[in-house]
């Protein structure tokens, strides 16, 4: 084959450091748009970005020329800088060190987008910790909890 093609859909999740609820509802739409732009600028496509005060979810069509870990690193670094430039109250803002990334079948994409859109509603009855542990269990990942929460 002379052409390289890829369709890699990924659900990416990460929280603020120590799950601090600092991303208020006024800044979220702007932050999510900035994060989508960062992803789109790196050979990938942000299909949806959402979350709550303490974490974000992204549905991403990962480009064929960038590694997932590199994209997340760039995304966190750049969105961190964006937040700090936006307001002095974010001068000490940090994302958690790690992240979760889960493969998504094309047939699951609409469901994932709906799930991301409903984050505020979803988190009226469950915490990010509960949600994240459920995701890990769904994908049969068994993390060492000593290093899971910071």
TrEMBL record:
One of its GO terms (biological process) is DNA transposition. SMART domains: Y1_Tnp. Pfam families: Y1_Tnp. GO terms for molecular function: DNA binding; transposase activity. Residues 5-119 form the Transposase IS200-like domain. This is IS200/IS605 family transposase. It comes from Persicirhabdus sediminis. The gene is tnpA.
């Amino acid at each position: 084959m002379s052409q390289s093609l890829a369709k890699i859909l990924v659900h990416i999740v990460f929280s603020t450091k120590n799950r601090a609820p600092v991303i208020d509802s006024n800044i979220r739409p702007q932050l999510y748009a900035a994060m989508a732009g960062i992803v789109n600028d790196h050979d990938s496509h942000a299909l949806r970005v959402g979350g709550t005060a303490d974490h974000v979810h992204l549905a991403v069509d990962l480009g064929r020329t960038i590694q997932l870990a590199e994209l997340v690193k760039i995304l966190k670094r750049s969105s961190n800088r964006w937040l700090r430039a936006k307001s002095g109250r974010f001068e000490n803002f940090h994302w958690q060190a790690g992240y979760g990334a889960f493969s998504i079948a094309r047939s699951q994409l609409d469901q994932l987008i709906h799930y991301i859109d409903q984050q505020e509603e979803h988190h009226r009855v469950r915490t990010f910790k509960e949600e994240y542990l459920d995701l890990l269990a769904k994908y049969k990942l068994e993390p060492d909890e000593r290093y899971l929460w910071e």
